[in-house]
Amino acid sequence: MNHEPVIKRLKRILVQQLNLERDPESIGDDEELFRAGLNLDSIDSLEMIIAIEREFCLSISDEQLKEPEKIFRTIRTLANFVEALLPPSAKK
Q1: What is the pTM of this model?
Q2: CATH of the domain at 71
Q3: Does 56 reside within a domain?
Q4: CA–CA distances in Å: residue 80 to residues 3, 55, 65
Q5: pLDDT-based confidence at 92, cuts 50/70/90?
Q6: How many domains, in total, are found in the chain?
């Protein structure tokens, strides 16, 4: 499955929403979002959830976020999560 459109959108959201002083293209698909990577925190992840819901017209429940450390590990894992929630027509 090609994640490129979702990944690009997530990188843009990440940079804009969290006011990162980086070019979205400079963020690696497998770069860690927390710890040694982009060094995000729990507040950042909440902001990202809200921005993702708006960008992709989704409603993300607490139940869907049972394992945030896996979902928010990298841009790629976040894209996998978002794509699983999208209707088939939106994945094109």
Answers
A1: 0.87
A2: 1.10.1200.10
A3: yes
A4: 8, 15, 13
A5: low
A6: 1
Residue 6 and residue 81 in contact, taking contact as beta carbons nearer than 8 Å: no
Token pair 């698909």 in the structure block, residue: 29
- Retrieve residue 40's tokens: 């995000």
Q: Which domain holds residue 83?
A: 4-87
Phi, psi of 21 (to 5 degrees): -90, 60
Bigger pLDDT: 2 vs 24: 24
Residue range 34-65, pLDDT digits in tens:
988 899 998 999 999 999 999 999 999 999 98
Q: Among 50, 11, 5, 6, which Cα is nearest to 31's?
A: 11
**What's the distance, CA 33 to chain centroid?**
9
* Structural domain contains residue 92: no
pLDDT at 87: 86
